[in-house]
Amino acid sequence: MDAVAETFSFALSVTAPIFLTLLVGYGLARVKLLSDSFVDDASKLVFLVTLPALLFFNIFGSDARLGDEWPLLLAGLIGTVLTVPLAWVFARPLEYGDRSAFIQGAFRGNLGIIGLAWAANAYGPHGLAQAALLMAVITIFYNVAAVSLFAVYSQKARFSWKKLGVDILRNPLIVAIVLALIAKGVGLKLPQMIVQTGDYLASVTLPLALLCIGASLDLSMLRRSSFGAFVASGFKLFAVPLVLLGVGFLFQLDGQAMAILFLLAATPTASASFIMARALGGNSQLAANIIAISTLFSIVTASLGLALLKVYLP
Prior knowledge:
It is found in: Cell membrane. By secondary structure, the chain is mainly α. The chain is built from 13 helices and no strands.
């Protein structure tokens, strides 16, 4: 009995602080202590400065190496690719114009903030470095798949593959990860004052980003959510982790790698899915509903899943 309690306590210690910080952000926004303009500016700061700093200095200073992590990265990529056609099957009963938002909401997780935060809480700097490498690989696929979906299902979408490639190469998160790997590979030595400055910037990333996500949530949308939004959220929180864990099992990943794979797979739908749906002519209301539902219930599904993994893959 004590072992069971300890296992669930570990799982909650990973997920609950993240969820509570989201609620604090939500509450501060409701009492007007976090304005829309602050959230917009802070979100840009996180994406362009502090999160790249977190990724760069964590990977640069960790013992995680790209060559050692290829089974985890390949399992994550293959599993994510497999979820897209499965989500497409579930989207078939929906109206044609709603399918892009449904499919993207069903497979695109919030890896950069919630996924990294869960990994850091569970396994410290090494787990965060593993998650960052996995995030880079999956994020590239996310962007390609999402834009392709809206090109197929939306009459308003206008894009070029060249522009998509440039956007991926200029993504600050991917650039930071690549630079960190290069710096590690050539044995670069950074002055301590640079490292300490990077640590200062990195330390504000997750709390600030989580507060912004919480402030952006509109839980009133739950009352207006459609059946499709609940199905997409269920797919994201149950089917996606199961598929990725199945692939990880085939790759014979160790317990920690399986847990990292699960934590990133079990994240709620990314806010970027709403932004892209609105920009490319998809059903942005459906996208917003999926984000709200999956965020609310992810604390339960992620905690239970991590506890089960801890029992069966210690």
